[in-house]
Amino acid sequence: MRLWYNGSMKKARRGFTLVEVALFLVITAAIFVSIAVGTQNSIFQQRYNDAVQNFAEFLRSTYSQVSNVQSEGTGRTNKAIYGKLIVFGVNQEKTKNEITSYNVIGDVGEESSGGDILTKLADSNANVIIQDDDGFKAVGMVENYVPRWASQIQTGDAWGDSGYTLFQGMLLVVRHPSSGTIYTFIDKSGTIDVDKMIEQSEALGAEQNELKPLLEPGTREFEKEDAVFCVNPNGAEKSSLRRGIRVAKGARNASGVEILSDGEGCM
After folding, report:
1. For the whole model, what pTM was predicted?
2. What is the rounded CA–CA span in Å between residue 210 and residue 132?
3. What was the pLDDT predicted at 173?
């Protein structure tokens, strides 16, 4: 029997159908989006952690500065720096999250022999501005702190009709004039506008002092209690990632600044 080869036999078809190509593109796009979203979330989380850690370190550094500073730096022996006043939210409409650290200055050797640390500071005419040959100014170097990655420092209150509440108040970290012991106090009632104090002093030709009345018995606003600050990575937006940082009641050193666990201190 003779076999004949048909040279016109069709070859096996190769390549992909339109459906297969479309399916491949859809799967590839889904994988790309998943990777991009995961990367973005990872970057956001890293930035948020950085903002929390950085703010905690800002607070901790205050204690080392208070324990090491001995004079107000102008060569005068009748004045000394006794601590730091950290002011939150002086002008919320303008800055939304202004945080400024000022030196607290007082007379040397003029404090009372009795009473608590705040009374002693009041008797020492504690203030955050001084007068020199150039006029009135804040004591020493003023430190302006801006939370990283557009985060905001807020209270622990839950989300309300107007959103979260920015923390507006003052943290006072001071060294006892006699013993050198460090004390921490919080004032949640309001702030001191140091720039306005300087302007008023220049206008009146006399040093103004809004800090001293807040230290005196009867008009005192500073309290020795826990202070909880909530770091919100989304700024004014609602967030489930708010992390609390607590400055313990009467903290004496940097160990009193604690980063809280998720969900603790921030509603």
Report:
1. 0.83
2. 19
3. 97
